[in-house]
Protein: Dehydrogenase
Organism: Paenibacillus zeisoli
Amino acid sequence: MPTFPDKHKSALPSPRRIRRGCSKELYRTVKRMKTYIPESKIKEGEEIYYRKVIGNLLWIHENSSNRKVLANWWDEQVSQELAELWEVDRLKLSEAFRDAFGG
């Protein structure tokens, strides 16, 4: 039986693509929260989120098709730190992220 290349498997995303994805996800989250967050704190939050994604990139890439698992990871690993930084309710932040992310 001939072996075919894994043409349906994508390569790891570039750091630029990861940074842009994190930025978009947090922008959509903040928009759904309908709360003002200063631009400097949003940039700091994006940097925190980006570092956590880079640190778990292989696991995130393996689960890229399961938004619910990724949203659960975000709740456990990222939401607490962002809620403290942005001084918002963690549950409200998590709910807004799930709404924006689709998990």
